[in-house]
Amino acid sequence: MEEEAFTDISGKPITLDCHSHSSFCREFTVSSSKVSIGKVMVYTCSVWLLAYAVFFFTQNTAVLSSAILITLVGMMLHIHFVKVDHESLLVIGSLGIQVSSSYASGREVTTFIEMSKIKDIVINEAIYMHQIIYYLCVLLKEPFEPNEVSSVVPLFQSSKPRLSCLVKVYKSCQEILSKCQ
């Protein structure tokens, strides 16, 4: 088990945890920073101060109640649907690939792709905002045309690691895929 520190495309620290279960099975976990309590406090205080200012001029208590409710619901939705704590890629040589995302609320989303549907794993590039970024993706075979690509499944969508991290995962995945063919 080895853990390395990298950065994402925004320069924020992330960690890559590589765990080799066997020569045909490896797991990669990219973890991002936890929810910052300082940021949560700043956003909450900003919304509540704005609501209090509106309340001060209107004397309407519904403004304060609405601000508290909106803040709490917004934080719960952010933690449950947006903030990803870590993403995992489990490559099992003869079986397939499992992709998992764990959210700050504890919710986990897992997808499995059979090895028979996988054409290749590649590093692709894309234009994001005003920069070129790289991402790891799985190319899926067209069911009736095995030499054609039917779709592309991007990996590590939330953590968005930089190229140096992706290359490490890519080389290890290619090593496993080459043993299976």
Automatic annotation (TrEMBL):
Domain Phosphatidylinositol N-acetylglucosaminyltransferase subunit H conserved residue range list: 88-157
Pfam families membership: PIG-H
Classification via InterPro entries: PIG-H, PIGH-H_dom
Pathway(s) per entry: Glycolipid biosynthesis; glycosylphosphatidylinositol-anchor biosynthesis
Alphabetized UniProt keyword annotations: Membrane, Transmembrane, Transmembrane helix
Single biological process term from Gene Ontology: GPI anchor biosynthetic process
Source organism, top-level taxon: Eukaryota
Transmembrane segments: 40-57, 63-82
Record family assignment: Belongs to the PIGH family.
One GO CC term on file: glycosylphosphatidylinositol-N-acetylglucosaminyltransferase (GPI-GnT) complex
Name this protein carries in UniProt: Phosphatidylinositol glycan anchor biosynthesis, class H
Presence of keyword Transmembrane: yes
Residue ranges of coiled coil: none
